[in-house]
Specification:
- This protein has a single domain, classed as Hypothetical Protein Aq_1857, Chain: A.
- About 15% of the residues lie in helices and about 35% in strands.
- The chain contains two helices and ten strands, in the order E-E-H-E-E-E-E-H-E-E-E-E.
- The protein has a seven-stranded mixed sheet with strand order 1-5-6-3-4-10-9.
- Strand 3 and strand 4 form a beta hairpin.
- The radius of gyration is 15 Å and the shape is globular.
- InterPro entries: ATAP, ATAP_core_dom, FeS_cluster_insertion_CS, HesB-like_dom_sf.
């Protein structure tokens, strides 16, 4: 499969804030994965229906979309992309520590924990959504 890196646009890809790109670059370097990407995905679960996931990944699978923003590669699988299109990854530090967050224009509601969201106002899929993380 020929790998194509797409320039992110708000309507079709994912972007990163400067803080998120800095932290992602630090994590990639610390794990000796400078050429890897940050894989962002959505899975059923969480208190609002879907939850976000992120991982370091040095491979691209069939159907993945690859974006690059601020020098960091972002990989999204084809099932997650419609739910994440136009999203921005941020990194926030506060008194409780720090962490990545996703500013998702597709989310119609989100849980107070910030790790779970819903896109259509319907109940969580497959009976998921019992508790916050």
């Amino acid at each position: 499969m020929q790998e194509e890196t797409l320039t992110p646009t708000p309507a079709r890809g994912m972007t990163m804030t400067a803080a998120a790109a800095k932290k992602a670059s630090e994590l990639l370097l610390a794990n000796n994965k400078e050429n890897a990407a940050i894989r962002v995905f959505v899975k059923s679960g969480g208190c609002s229906g879907y939850s976000y996931g992120m991982a370091i990944d040095d491979r691209t699978l069939e159907g993945d979309s690859l974006f690059e923003d601020r020098g960091v590669k972002i990989v999204v699988d084809k099932m997650s992309l419609p739910l994440l299109a136009g999203s921005e990854i941020d990194y926030i530090e506060n008194m409780m520590g720090g962490g990545f967050s996703v500013n998702n224009p597709n989310a119609t509601s989100a849980c107070g924990c910030g790790h779970s969201f819903r896109t259509d106002g319907k109940a969580a899929p497959d009976g998921q959504g019992a508790s916050c993380h």
